[in-house]
Every structure is written in C-alpha cells, then in structure tokens.
Amino acid sequence: MGAYIELKLFASLKTYLPQGAAHFPITSGERVEALIKRLGIPPDEVKLIFVNGVKAQISSILGGGERVGIFPPVGGG
Amino acid sequence: MPVKAALSQAICQVSTRATHPDGTPYRSIRMKDLEQLCHVHGLCGRDVEIAALEAGVVPERYARNIKVYSLEDQVALLRSCVCVVGMGGLGGTVVEILARLGVGTLLLVDGDTFDESNLNRQFLCREEGLGKPKVQEAARRVGAVNSSVVVHVHQAYLNEDNTLSILGDSDVAIDCLGGLKARFVLEGATRKAGCPLVSAAVAGLYGHVTTIFPADLGLQLIYGDAQSLPPVGAESSLGCLPQITTLFAALECSEATKILLKKRPLLRHRLMVIDLDDMHAEVMDLQKG
Hints:
Chain A is mainly β.
C-alpha cells in the first residue's frame, strides 16, 4: 500500500502546489528535502516546515499520513 | 481635602446612572465632563479617566469594554505604554485599536512618509495625507479618536543605536514592520529592555503572528539565522491586501492586551497562521513539547 501526505503550500509557494495535494503520494521514509525537490520548489524559497502542526526540518523523515505545511519567508506589514 | 479625594468627589457628582444593553446598571461619566475636570484640576484626560474608574465610574467611551474587561483592567490599560513599530498596514490598524481600547500611552515609530501604493491597506493613509510623515498622521488619528491617550512619535527607522532608547519603559512592543532584517533589530532591543514583543507578518492573503518574551528563542524559529535572511520575503511578489493586514493587526492587539492584563494563553512558542485564500487557520508549535 502506498504512503500519502496531506500537503499544503503557503503564500508564494502555492504556484508549486501539485494536483491532489490533499492526498499526495510519497515514498515512506522520504525526507522533506526530497519532497521539496520533487515539487520543484527552489530550496531557498522555503523558510518554515511544519509536520502535523509542529516545526520540522528539511531532514525530517515522512512515513505517510502526516500533514505537511511548507512556507516561504514572509515579512510584509 | 486632598486633591485625589476632591477629584473623586467631583467625578461622582457629575457621573450619571446608566445601564448596559443587558440592563446591568453602572455609573457613567461623559467626555465633556471629563474635559471640564481636566481643565479644573490641571490633569490630562488619561489621569482623570483613571481617577473615574478608581471611583467606580466608567468613562462612557469605555462602556462597551467593561463587560469583558473589569474596571481594574481598564485602569491597567490606561496605565500601560505600548510601542508600535511601523505605521503601515499592520501598524495603522494596531494604533486605531489600541487608542480605542484605551491604552494610555503609545510610542509610535516610523521614518517613512505616505505614498499612493499605501492607500489599498494602510488605514492611516488618506489621499490628503500623501507625502506626510506616517507618525504625524498616526498621532493625528489617535487625537481624533481618543484624545486621552498620550502619544510620543519617533520619525525614524530602527537601527542598532536608536531602538533601545525609543522603546524606553514600554510594557509591550508590537512589530508592525515591513521587511525582514529590521524585525531582528527590534527583537534584539526588546530582549535588552526586558520587554515582550508581538510580531506579525503578511503576504498576499497569508499572515502569521507570534508572541516573544525576552528569554524566548523568538524570530529565529520563524526566519532562521538573522545573518542568512533573504533581502525580501514573499510580500515582494504577492503584495499585501487590506483584509489580511487588518486581521493580523487585530490579532497583534489581542496578544498585546492579554500581555498587559496578564491573561493567558498567549502565542508564545507558537505561530498562528491564516490563509484567507482557502480559509485555513492553524496554530503551529514552533518548539517540540
């Protein structure tokens, strides 16, 4: 059985949102870094990662079933 | 008779019986009577309002605050000093809310002047005010909505040298800055001053807000190392819309008011994120556990 995540991209990263992001296939054991690369997001556009609502790192490992949020730097006022 | 007792007696004499919309009675004092007492006793509006509240009389302008905040809370707000840094989309609305709530002293900081591109979201920006200093327009607005508030303006951009002295004895600082690097300058000064900081940032229809106490890790949890910041954030490609700046200004005021009144919980070590594009709202943990 395949592994899936619920993927959300925020602000300027929405242009990279794939089809079926709410049930997006991953390889179990895939790192966030590889996911970002697969989505075509330039790594320097990523500032914050949350997995299941908790701050994570690009090295964080996904097993499937997680909610993953990826954010760019935001500084408008 | 001591001055305080004389003032208290005069306040009670001019106060009237009033009722809240739910029928609860209270003693009320109107603005014109407060102004008269200020004149007679040589006091500023804020001090006479504090005296009224301490005598159990509600200045009518705060009558709709008093069901959620106690009279003591309203006194605490009037005795508080908040430093608002940045008078743009966030800052303009923050100033409006804090003045109407009755935060007694506002330190307003911005070195910029108003430009046409500010008109879409910055409530302090008027067509007639284009080209004018933002802090000047902010002080004008506070005077128009609550002349009891004491306002100090600093028409300056923050730097390593001026920030600590500008903060002074502020009880809370609110980060309403645009851009990334200046936020770290402000955070550094609030650490030295021992002053809590509320920080928000927006881009397009997205925003986030957090609260940082002096010992907290703070902005580095959101932006990483200050030395490796990009020159601009997502707002440079998305712009900023008024519905998101106004929403996050309100959230910043909510946090600041809770800090001033020692209410909990706060967004410490947490980041509230809202995306109005898909109506997603969530409070994220910035630290495990």
